Amino acid sequence: MTRARGPSFAFERERHALGARFVAGVDEVGRGPLAGPVGVAAVIFPRGASPLPGIDDSKKLDRARREALFPLILERALSVSVVFASAEEIDRYNIRGATLRAMARAVAGLSVRPDFALIDGRDVPDPLSCPACAIIDGDELSLSIAAASIVAKVARDRLMARLDAHYPEYGFSGHCGYGTPAHLKVLARLGPTPLHRKSFKSKALSGP
């Protein structure tokens, strides 16, 4: 069977047909950077909502397109929740554990309590405030998850831009904490900041 191109509301409609009134899509961004938090968003669209053109996995969209979609998602959604897992939390619980904890907080933070959650990836957080299923490549399949990926990405990028003002030498507004050559060069010269993840083993984090 040929899959339709781009995310759709198919998973959401399936859950609605099974009795769920509110279905949340949940996704994270920022698992790979050397610095900054993991960002997680949860998004609930109204049952029967029309697809919002242009929504896709945030990794497939440029910054301008994500920024343009961000307010449209907030306008169309019934509820949106964004949370962050700090570098300290990542170091304490590892990246997987911190991400799952943040996903649970994002779902709990929704102003509309979901009956079911669609989680991008392989794992469902435990405990979670509602039943859920994990969907591999969910941000390419579910519109709710894709919207959550955009919201999380925009929110995290904006946070890293604000943090840039506290550590201007590191260029966080440009690379958002990822291990770019410019970031690694500054790390080698100045060493890590409190925003850097100590558990991410790298020569770059060892300082000058």
Write the SSE topology.
Layout: H1 10-17, E1 23-29, E2 38-44, H2 63-76, E3 79-85, H3 87-108, E4 116-120, E5 132-135, H4 143-164, H5 172-175, H6 181-190
Parallel strand pairs: 1-4, 4-5
Antiparallel strand pairs: 1-2, 2-3
What's the helix-strand series?
Answer: HEEHEHEEHHH
* Annotated CATH topology: Nucleotidyltransferase, domain 5
Query: What would the average pLDDT be, to the nearest integer?
Result: 93
Largest sheet: 5 strands, mixed
| CATH class categorisation | Alpha Beta
Net shape? globular
Rg estimate, integer Å = 18 Å
In terms of DSSP E residues, the strand content is 5-15%
The helix content, as a percent range, equals: 25-40%
Q: Termini, distance in Å?
A: 55 Å
Helix count from the secondary structure assignment: 6
Total strands: the figure is 5
What is the annotated CATH architecture?
Answer: 2-Layer Sandwich
